[in-house]
Amino acid sequence: MNKALTRTPVRSPCVKVCEMDETIGLCKGCFRTQDERDWWVAYTDDQQREVLRRCEQRREAVCQGDGAPLPPSMGPTRDKDFRFQE
Question: Domain limits at 24?
Answer without folding.
Answer: 20-64
